[in-house]
Amino acid sequence: MTGRLDQNTSLRTLHWQGGVDGQLVLIDQTLLPTEFREISCQTVETVWEAIKALRVRGAPAIGVAAAYGVCVGLQTVLGADEAALHRRLNDVVTYLATSRPTAVNLFWALDRMRRKAEALRGKHSPAELARLLLAEAATIEEEDRQTCRELGRHGASLLADGSGVLTHCNAGGLATADYGTALAVIFAACEAGRKVHVYADETRPLLQGARLTAWELKERGIPVTLLCDSMAAQVMREGRVQAVIVGADRIAANGDTANKIGTYGVAILAAHHHIPFYVAAPISTFDFKLPSGAGIPIEHRDSREVTHGFGRQTAPDGIDVYNPAFDVTPAPLIAGFITERGVIRPPFAETLVRLRPES
Ligand code: MRU
User: What is the pTM assigned to this prediction?
Assistant: First the structure.
């Protein structure tokens, strides 16, 4: 399964098929890299399960899935009155918000759908309201595509010809509607004619780096070397890495950044080796309500992901396990945020304020 994507091909991580009575179609990422299969979600429960089980994952993609999930949820009340539609919308939004806690894009997208419905209240038939909400979800998807392209263009100049770039987890096209965040920077640098070699951490325990990042880069013909997470320090010491670029699930107002577990350790290693550590993320991943990373809710996942990864028992029966899915990298370890509005440098207390939606 190689050569599916050239540099301009859209990945279509997820999309809507049909009209208001249509369905959400998404690549089942739990099957990659050995099987490329799309699944369709026709109930809000299947959307919830797809997010929870990481069939669709990565902060921006979760947001888009949730927005379409609202549209799927409304299908049970398309023939009802407007009050019933608003009641159902509130229930669906509350339900989808319980799928995963850390990526703020989930809550951002649900809030946007709720606000859109409020703005339309009393002005349209239920069928028309459902149609306008579907259009809003499609706009969220399209904006994500544009945002990733802009973000990639802004970040590309950070990578000199011949750079080695280390990344953790998957912040590629699979984690967004298309093109990615951290990987968008690499794609854009390659499109600009620069040679970049990527070192992809495998990313224990669910191997998003090995299964997804390595797959995406290989599909696009970008040189990539897969590393066990524990090898990053050695590879840095050998002088192979000139920049680290990762994605984010939630960024607090002071720049503290939650991302896949292991990111914090990579940031410390980068600081020790004087390698710039960048976070690539859309503005929808910033949570300006939180003053610091201490308030970011961290998802804890099933211990079997650690003891029985991919079907084989690798630890003794009954062993105690700690399995946080994310960690928080303190802002002082971050050289800059690559966003659709440009690269934001320290001092973040002053520079991040400019990204607030109201400013
Ligand atoms: O648990 P996951 O696979 O959803 O975690 C994903 C990450 O940590 C990504 O780095 C982050 O969401 C940014 S995606 C552009």
Answer: 0.96
